[in-house]
């Protein structure tokens, strides 16, 4: 059993906002108990998978380790019970690719997979570059100071994915607000009730309301795309068929929600965190500036460094052995991506930000059948932004203390105040 203080830390949204606390907790676990059971207060016990190799091993075996049978995100006992009551026995408020296992996962993923493949994305690159340029111009117009997270990193990927889905620009602020309320439900600056700590019923009710607002929005969009399809992702979802039948209602709405939230939030977090790292490591900024061919390796390092998705849960469908430990059928497991991405057995000096790090086999996008569908789009957006920004950015430094969102599932920088010189 993992010591109680560590078990409580790894589910505490505030610990992820501080980062150092979770880093230390996972470092201890990797060293002393790389695969062990945690039972934080108010939670069912679960295995904590901290090593890179073990995370890959679980992700490789989709039939043995399921996403959908139990909550896919670590959830207090009372919250799971409440969701199951609301959802007719299901532990999920939404049912997206993340909550699915095969055959549904394969069939639903296939529906949009071609949209997110590199050959299709090439057609979007010129438009994405226009958008990136406009944001670099907007940053330059700020003079010599801005909040890079709020002014650039949150808005640029948002604009790209909304254009891909087919959401009009006027609705982007709503989509950003709903995304932050969904992923930042434990953060008083972001959640709907502006509450420091919400009891389970209040937290679930506010999440339900957020999901409800998304559904209202995308329901109207589905009707419009069925009447008049366009060349956008919304039309694919609205008119898609699985085994000859239209998508289930909850599944269609969940598809929009994951595209509209994970489709920008993770890229935003990585972009903001990558610049934060450069501002703190001027030698790395100079190295990147002197050699723009390092942009791809800088991006992979930013993705590893920030690891916006902190965990997913899996549950065993049969008795199994992992890293010499016996996992029983039904056991719940936390795959800790930040821990895998700081694994000393895989990464040299894992707590050092290195723009030239190679190889960089991070697990931030997951692995196997559930690997992130939008990874190529995310990489392209970040690459194009840096190709536009780097030649114009002469100097950058922090202008105050950056902050992170309080969340134990998806999070990254909330604010990155910088001083900069641009031409």
SSE arrangement:
Blueprint: H1 4-9, H2 13-18, H3 20-32, E1 35-38, E2 46-49, H4 52-60, E3 65-66, H5 77-86, H6 104-113, H7 118-140, E4 145-147, H8 148-153, H9 155-165, H10 172-183, H11 200-227, H12 233-239, E5 241-242, E6 245-246, H13 249-280, H14 282-290, H15 295-306, E7 311-316, E8 320-322, E9 325-327, E10 332-336, H16 337-340, H17 375-389, E11 393-398, E12 403-404, E13 413-415, E14 417-422
Parallel strand pairs: 2-10
Antiparallel strand pairs: 1-2, 3-7, 4-14, 5-6, 7-10, 8-9, 11-14, 12-13
Description:
With 423 residues, this protein is of the alpha+beta class. The protein has one domain: Cytochrome P450 (Cytochrome p450, Orthogonal Bundle), CATH 1.10.630.10. It is built from 17 helices and 14 strands. The protein has helices spanning 4-9, 13-18, 20-32, 52-60, 77-86, 104-113, 118-140, 148-153, 155-165, 172-183, 200-227, 233-239, 249-280, 282-290, 295-306, 337-340, 375-389; strands at 35-38, 46-49, 65-66, 145-147, 241-242, 245-246, 311-316, 320-322, 325-327, 332-336, 393-398, 403-404, 413-415, 417-422. Strand 12 (403-404) and strand 13 form a beta hairpin. The longest helix has 32 residues, at 249-280. It starts with a helix and ends with a strand.
Number of helices: 17
Rg, alpha carbons: 21 Å
Task: Count the domains.
Answer: 1
CATH architecture: Orthogonal Bundle
Which geometry do the CA atoms define? Answer: globular
Largest sheet: 5 strands, mixed
Helix/sheet category: alpha+beta
According to DSSP, the number of beta strands is: 14
Tell me what portion of residues adopts beta-strand conformation: 5-15%
Mean pLDDT: 95
Distance linking N and C termini? 56 Å
Low-confidence spans: none
CATH class: Mainly Alpha
Query: What percent of the residues sit in helical stretches (DSSP H or I)?
Result: 40-55%
What is the fold named in CATH at topology level?
Cytochrome p450
Biggest sheet strand order reads: 1-2-10-7-3
**CATH homologous superfamily?**
Cytochrome P450
